[in-house]
Amino acid sequence: MQALHPISQRLSRVLLCVLASFFCANALAQALPPPVLMALNRAQVPADAIALLVVEAGGRTMPRLSHRADQPMNPASVMKLVTTTAALDLLGPAYTWRTPVWVDGPVVNGVLQGNVIIQGQGDPKLVLEKLWLLLRRLQGLGIHTIAGDIVLDNRAFDVPATDPAEFDGEPLRPYNAAADALLINFKSVVMTFVPDVLTSSARVQFDPPLWGVQLQPSVPLSQGKSASNRGCGDYRANLKADFSEPTRIRFHGSYPASCGEKVWPIAYFEPASYNARVIEGLWRNMGGQLSGSVRSGTAPGGPATFEVASPTLAEVIRDVNKFSNNVMAQQLFLTLGLPSSQTPSSPASAREAVRQWWQRRISATDVPTIDNGSGLSRHNRISAQQLGQLLQVAYAAPYMPELMSSLPLVGVDGTLKRSKASSASAHLKTGSLKEVTALAGYVHGASGKRYVLVAMINHPNAAAVRPALDALIDWAVMDNQRQ
């Protein structure tokens, strides 16, 4: 065999070194940090059930960690990152929703000779206080009595009727409330229990007031510990609440005195009548009179008498991401389906709007499977690599500060307030479903560098991996040490 020329031998050695360096670096990137691996072993979660990615934000370097990063996974509520990033890019941080109101008749001696029409346009935060201000504006126009009807127009969203118990069998959980173009107070009722030892009862306050619903004003007070024998325990079970009738809320049990004041929010069990009951209940509670009824209808085409504006998108996504508000995320998702046509937005049009945005801004060919915008789905699929691309694009965008500040700050607020990782070391969105735990966002390294971090676990023991995720955050932070 002919010997290689000396120069060729040197080039071969250089090439071998380069290849060896590449494969070594790739092998290192695939290796799980020992603290993470130990925590996963304790949780009995195998390495083939997780996907991890840690890469410098804004950089073109190889990932510090990449494990099954190209595998599509269920991200749970981390899918809200797709929804909120698309919204910031398409609508802008200063975007607001408008709820127009029409008064269609003259006001004579405090009586409106006509109807009031309220049109929903998707405001995700039309809460009780905002509705009070809306009705207060009507009173400011001199209206004390409405001789006609209050007409509600929610046609901007075309949302199929669903069973609120379909996803997880918890129909009274507020997060299972369906989206609505006229979403008032998240379709929820907040019950506040205040014990009064002198009367041996607990007062019950219901917000908002519901017209036509009998509300039990108090429940008997039970002394000592609750049935669970652990301090306050499960006070909700002790109350033996009865929500079987839409026109009555009753309690057949008692309230433990050891619980102090407690707040229990529930989704109203007849959502179709919720808006009408709340608006009439609050209007009458404010001293107003209504001769007609609250009914569905169509808004007129002319200019509104006045409008009520929502908080800005930048403010709204803080609630969506920090507290993982599913209903607000769905409202935002459906809003993205509105600009594409004059027809109402539907889940299908929203999915198509986000898909087209992804192809323009992230990747024309590598598109995740998007079922809905909140992550409350068993069908959403996205890889750690795709989430990493999304976060890199957002990091280079003008709206990066708004997105980052909307994410929970580790050990400080939101869904990461109780995290045991290095406090204030990262802004990360959490996700949790049965057999799913996920985390994605930005980590602030000790060296001053910033990293994109993505972690997804799809496994029956996924709920036990929190210590492993805390260890991953700490490992990513300590980038000034040999790893």
Give a verbal description of the structure.
- There is one protein chain.
- Helices cover 30% and strands 22% of the residues.
- The protein has 483 residues and is of the alpha/beta class.
- Strands 2-1-22-21-20 form a five-stranded antiparallel sheet, with helices on both faces.
- It contains twelve helices and 22 strands.
- The chain has two domains: 28-94 and 313-477, DD-peptidase/beta-lactamase superfamily (Beta-lactamase, 3-Layer(aba) Sandwich), CATH 3.40.710; 97-310, no CATH class.
- The protein has helices at residues 6-30, 34-43, 80-91, 128-140, 235-239, 271-285, 313-322, 326-335, 347-361, 384-395, 400-406, 466-477, and strands at residues 50-56, 65-67, 98-103, 107-108, 111-112, 116-119, 145-146, 150-153, 188-196, 201-207, 214-215, 218-222, 241-245, 248-251, 255-256, 262-267, 289-290, 294-296, 306-309, 426-433, 436-444, 450-458.
- It is globular and about 75 Å long.
Which CATH architecture of the largest domain would you pick? 3-Layer(aba) Sandwich
Q: What Rg is obtained from the alpha carbons, in whole angstroms?
A: 27 Å
**CATH homologous superfamily heading of the largest domain:** DD-peptidase/beta-lactamase superfamily
How many separate helices? 12
* Bulk shape: globular
Task: Name the CATH class of the largest domain.
Answer: Alpha Beta
Tell me the strand percentage band. 15-25%
Helix content: 25-40%
- Largest sheet strand order: 2-1-22-21-20
- Number of structural units classed as domains: 2
- Given as residue ranges, the uncertain stretches (5+ residues, pLDDT < 50) are 10-29
Q: Averaging pLDDT over every residue, what do you get? A: 90
Q: What profile does the largest beta sheet have?
A: 5 strands, antiparallel
Tell me the distance between the termini.
44 Å
- Number of beta strands: 22
Annotated CATH topology of the largest domain: Beta-lactamase
What structural category arises from helix and sheet content?
A: alpha/beta
